[in-house]
Design a protein that fits this description.
heterodimer; A: mainly alpha; two-stranded antiparallel ribbon; two-stranded antiparallel sheet; 8 helices; B: mainly alpha; F1FO ATP Synthase; 3 helices; elongated
């Protein structure tokens, strides 16, 4: 038994060893500093970094979700570039590297998942849906990195000293999620017009009655017109439900992590970090899958 | 009532009442999914994915209530005197 244990100890990979070491350091730190001093001011809106930009609306500084969102795009672009380079190299040598295989497997899984819902429209709808998925996933997970929301400048606000972090999870700002939601709902209309043509607009503006309705005709016309109005309202409410679902989940996660780390520092936050990783994945999946369902519904007439 | 006390109670009630129905919905969905898995174990992977998606939609309602509670708690409002 001791022999196998020793063998296992020899095979311990450096990454696992580093992880165990970090966990031990965390435990010791948690014992030395059992809790934080004072809860920081939690702001629902993104804080503004006081560096003016020559753009309308940014004269007094820019929101601290902007660097995170740009960084997210940068990370995704670099990953795409690396994938492209390794794909070219694999074409020459015939031997794909690990990164290529991993990304291919991920995309295959996503493709079959989308195909279950979209059937023959998969190739048209997958690019947008996958972009939503990867952007939201990367933004959510980057918001959990150490330093995000904790490194910043102290500012005077209404006589109080407030920490303005340099980075804040991009989806912990209603503006980001609202932008994503508006893009998604506009894309629903574009998909509907592309696959159904002008017939798609009859969903919203329909004042016709069935031919054999007789005296009830005018009533049915008004009823149909009213149903169209309800469809318009439902499209608008989709924007808000998309935006608040994502913002609420991610912002609530950040507040949860802050509050827990001020109840018992270091150790107690670790399971919640795992929970937030899961929530980030599920919310990215929910946003993209719900968009996909709306697109698929808009492609055919019913 | 003191303004501070009123906001505390309002925030607690917002999430407390708003969490009740989503909790019931999530429980119903999970129980149905478990029944389905018990009846048809080979399709458990498919059922699990759909269950998590559906649960996320019910959870969103609770999250709206949580957003309202957090807004009451953390967004400063100048009280009327």
């Amino acid at each position: 038994m001791t022999e196998t244990a020793q063998k296992k100890k020899k095979k311990l990979s450096p990454l696992v060893a580093l992880g165990i070491l970090l966990a031990l350091v965390m435990c010791v730190l948690g014992l030395i500093f059992p809790r934080g001093r004072e809860l920081p001011v939690i702001s629902m809106a993104a804080e503004r970094i006081p560096i003016p930009l020559p753009l309308p609306g940014f004269q007094e500084g820019f929101p601290n979700t902007l660097p995170t969102a740009l960084l997210t795009s940068l990370v995704l672009s670099v990953l795409a570039l690396v994938y492209n380079l390794s794909a070219r190299r694999a074409e020459k040598t015939g031997r794909p590297n690990r990164f290529l295989v991993a990304v291919d497997a991920l995309f295959e899984g996503l493709y079959s998942f989308v195909e279950n819902i979209a059937r023959d429209k998969t190739r048209a709808l997958l690019p947008l849906v996958a972009t939503f998925f990867f952007f939201i996933l990367t933004a959510n997970w980057m918001g959990l990195l150490p330093g995000v929301g904790s490194i910043g400048l102290y500012e005077e606000h209404h006589g109080e000293r407030v920490l303005v972090p340099f980075f804040r999870g991009a989806n912990a700002d209603l503006s980001t999620t609202l932008a994503l939601a508006i893009i998604s709902v506009i894309a629903v209309q574009v998909v509907g017009l592309r696959f159904q043509g002008p017939r798609y607009l009859r969903k919203f503006f329909n004042f016709s009655a069935p031919p054999n309705s007789g005296a009830l005709g005018p009533v049915l016309r008004i009823a149909n017109g009213f149903a169209g109005l309800l469809e318009i309202i439902s499209e608008v409410s989709k924007i808000f439900s998309f935006a608040f679902r994502l913002f609420g989940n991610i912002f609530a996660g950040e507040v949860l992590l802050i509050v827990v780390s001020f109840l018992a520092a270091f150790v107690a936050t670790l399971p919640f970090m795992g929970l937030e990783l899961f929530v980030g994945l599920v919310q990215a999946l929910v946003f993209s899958m719900l968009s996909l369902v709306f697109y698929t519904m808009a492609t055919h007439h019913h | 009532m003191e303004y501070e006390a009123a906001t505390q109670i309002a925030a607690a009630l917002a999430i407390g009442l708003g969490g009740m129905m989503p909790a019931l919905a999530i429980g119903l969905m999970a129980s149905k999914a478990m029944e389905a898995i018990g009846r048809n174990p080979e399709s458990s992977g498919n059922i699990l994915t759909n269950m998590i998606l559906a649960i996320a939609f019910a959870e969103a309602i609770a999250i709206y209530a949580l957003v309202v509670a957090l807004a009451i708690k953390f967004v400063p409002v100048t009280p009327l005197h």
